[in-house]
């Protein structure tokens, strides 16, 4: 070989690629990116095919409610108690017919102990029934007696409990405007619902 002769590249050996290694690296990275992107897209599409609402116990996100608003029961007549009372609880003698427009109080059993004054703190057992359905929406019977200041409860209780004596049992018929009004307390208490209670007075704080 002389200086004037051009240098020849040796032909590639059998099976050896003529493509530079850096080109192969770039192509490999692009292929990997396309594969990963396709897998992510496939996962997202399959997830969309399920429920429209995802609920996570840890996310703390608010999920929009799809529940329909509860309709007002204003003017609906009161019906007899439809549920069986729990063990030890009395039946609520709902006055069937048009809902009362004023507070109803009726002693079912006269007490012999201390008398409840306005704003007192009382301990009671109670059972509550919705006028329009006759269903029990709350009760302490079979659970634990409730203790609270009368100032912290609905106006129907604030007005209907004073005058009771410990050991007594009283029926309360509470119009909506003395209970939860036009807002109600869904889902248990509909808007404009009249409430019927039987309250058994266990104790009253006298000082």
Structure description:
With 207 residues, the protein is of the alpha+beta class. The protein has 2 helices and 6 strands, in the order αββββαββ. Helix content is 16%, strand content 19%. Strands 1, 2, 3, 4, 5 and 6 form a 6-stranded antiparallel sheet that branches. A hairpin with a 5-residue loop joins strand 2 and strand 3 (136-139).
H/I helix tally: 2
Instruction: Give unreliable regions as ranges.
Output: 1-19, 38-65
Q: How is the biggest beta sheet arranged?
A: 6 strands, antiparallel
**Relative helix content:** 10-25%
Strand residue content: 15-25%
Looking at the structure, the CATH topology of the domain at 104-204 is: Chitinase A, domain 3
* Average pLDDT rating: 78
The value of Rg in angstroms is 37 Å
SSE order, as H and E? Answer: HEEEEHEE
Q: Judging by the overall fold, what is the CATH architecture of the domain at 104-204? A: Roll
Structural class: alpha+beta
Secondary structure blueprint with pairings:
Elements: H1 21-48, E1 104-109, E2 121-130, E3 136-139, E4 146-149, H2 155-160, E5 169-174, E6 195-204
Antiparallel strand pairs: 1-5, 2-3, 2-4, 2-6, 5-6
Provide the descriptors you would attach to this structure in a database record.
6-stranded antiparallel sheet; Chitinase A, domain 3; disordered N terminus; 207 residues; alpha+beta
Summed up:
This protein has two helices and six strands, in the order H-E-E-E-E-H-E-E.
């Amino acid at each position: 070989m002389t200086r004037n002769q051009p240098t020849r590249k040796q032909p590639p050996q059998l099976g050896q690629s003529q493509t530079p290694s850096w080109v192969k690296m770039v192509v490999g990275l692009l292929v990997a990116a396309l594969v990963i992107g396709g897998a992510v897209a496939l996962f997202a599409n399959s997830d969309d095919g399920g429920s429209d609402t995802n609920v996570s116990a840890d996310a703390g996100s608010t999920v929009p409610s799809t529940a329909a608003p509860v309709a007002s029961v204003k003017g609906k007549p009161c019906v007899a108690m439809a549920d069986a009372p729990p063990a030890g609880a009395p039946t609520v003698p709902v006055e069937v017919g048009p809902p009362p427009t004023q507070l109803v109080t009726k002693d079912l059993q006269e007490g012999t102990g201390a008398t409840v004054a306005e704003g007192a703190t009382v301990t009671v057992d109670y059972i509550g029934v919705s006028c329009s359905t006759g269903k029990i929406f709350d009760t302490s019977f079979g659970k634990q007696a409730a203790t609270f200041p009368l100032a912290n409860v609905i106006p129907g209780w604030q007005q209907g409990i004073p005058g009771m004596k410990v050991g007594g049992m009283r029926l309360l018929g509470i119009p909506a405007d003395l209970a939860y009004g036009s807002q109600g307390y869904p889902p248990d208490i509909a808007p404009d619902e009249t409430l019927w209670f039987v309250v058994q007075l266990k104790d009253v704080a006298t000082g």
